[in-house]
Amino acid sequence: MKLITLLAASISLLPVAAMAESKGTVEGIHHWVSESEVNALKVITDKLASKGYTWQDSAVGGLSGANALQALRTRLAAGNPPTTMQFLGYEGLDWAKEGVLRSLNDLYAKNGWDKALAPQLLAFVKSDDTFISLPINMHRQNWVWANKAVFDKAGIAEPKSWDELIAAGDKLKAAGVVPLAIGDEPWQILEVFEAIVTDVNGTEFYKKAVIDLDEAALSSDQMVDAFDKLRKVRGLVDDGFTGRDWAVATGMVASGKAGMQIMGDWAKGEFLAKGMKPGEDFLCFPTPAATANFKFIIDAFGVFNNDDPAVIAAQDAWAESIMDPEVQKNFNKIKGSIPARSDVSVEDFDACAKRSFADREAAVASGNMVGGLTEGFAAPPQFSGVFSDVVGKFFVTDMSSKDAVQALVDGINNAR
């Protein structure tokens, strides 16, 4: 009798959602595996659970999403797609051309979601006249993250040029601190290089060379100079960078082992997950540019064609969870990004997010908001892959800047 009473009491303490029968399962393939990313995703899946659906996590980390994309290809080839998949850059547009994505026009029309998105985002969530994905956030790619105590001790202020940043790195090295935390993954290196290209030469040059793939710009002295500056940055990296994950590099800055990291604002989520505060424990500032610019990327999810009404209902619940204003607010506070929806206030976000939000507005007004190359928002994969291969090889070998530029031109021309 006593056992029965205890069991009854235990059951009464269970959440209602746990006792209720699930309406169905939503399986998602994504590449969020760091602590902050997992915590941010939980904001969406908790909302999904409140709608009566169970989340089935199919995370595949590594290579900035490339491994997850390969997993999706395998699943589609087997005729077994997940309910939803995380997309970066042209990925969603490419799958839309394959005809495997469900149109989200009905949901966008019903909820007016398109009115809350910046025009730059629409180019990646819409294929022709069809909405094909749901953006949860906007990341700024061109950030520098620094350990405040390390910077203060070395007497370093926010650099206003790449020459100043490199000089700051030399001071850190002299003080016995790793100046720049980075790994040898090509995408981590490309983030640094494309920031140099844009900051030193301006967004118009970036558009010509990276977006338009203009051969004159690609083969110019400005591109050679960009590689020269990347070589100087290479001198700020420790010998242990081989195989280093980006979140491990962030941890080096957090602990004070390294002075700074050049990385998108997903790195901020890692600082916050460690209980650190911007302005007190770590610093955030844009990579130093002659003319301020904003390099954006978005994380978006698409859903796959299905005739089963139960699956469609589950997809709808997932879509509405992602686009819920409160979800976007709470997700991005953890993830380090800002909401994809421009109608969600960042008033109670941290100082880094507020700066990002203000800089985005200014960049949109000045025409200096451009998609990031590394994560696939500037050039299609066959071309961004060339940049990644050449820049990655340049960083870990003694290749000359002129040879790197020639390899870049040849690679782009071969991929046309």
Overall description:
By secondary structure, this protein is an alpha/beta fold. Helix content is 53%, strand content 14%. The protein has 20 helices and 15 strands. The chain has a 5-stranded mixed sheet with strand order 2-1-3-13-6. Strand 1 (24-30), helix 3 (35-50) and strand 2 (53-59) form a beta-alpha-beta unit. Helix 3 runs antiparallel to helix 17 (325-335), helix 10 crosses helix 13 (221-234) and helix 19 (381-396) packs antiparallel against helix 20. The protein starts with a helix and ends with a helix.
Task: Give the oligomer, counting copies of the same chain as homo and different chains as hetero.
Answer: single chain
First-residue to last-residue Cα separation: 77 Å
What is the tally of helical segments?
Answer: 20
Number of strands: 15
Mean pLDDT: 92
Task: State the secondary-structure class.
Answer: alpha/beta
* Rg calculated over all Cα atoms: 22 Å
Q: List the strand order in the largest sheet.
A: 2-1-3-13-6
Strand content: 5-15%
| Largest sheet report | 5 strands, mixed
What is this structure's SSE topology?
Blueprint (H helix, E strand, L loop, with lengths): L1 H12 L2 H4 L4 E7 L4 H16 L2 E7 L6 H12 L6 E4 L3 H8 L6 H7 L7 H7 E2 L2 E2 L2 E2 L1 E4 L2 E5 H7 L7 H13 L3 E3 L5 H16 L1 H9 L3 H4 L2 H14 L11 H10 L2 E5 L3 H8 L8 E5 L7 E4 L2 E4 L5 H15 L1 H11 L2 E2 L11 H16 L2 E3 L9 H16 L4 H15 L1
Parallel strand pairs: 1-2, 1-3, 9-10, 12-15
Antiparallel strand pairs: 3-13, 4-5, 6-13, 7-12, 7-14, 8-10, 8-11
Helix pairs in contact: 3-16, 3-17, 10-11, 10-13, 10-19, 13-20, 19-20
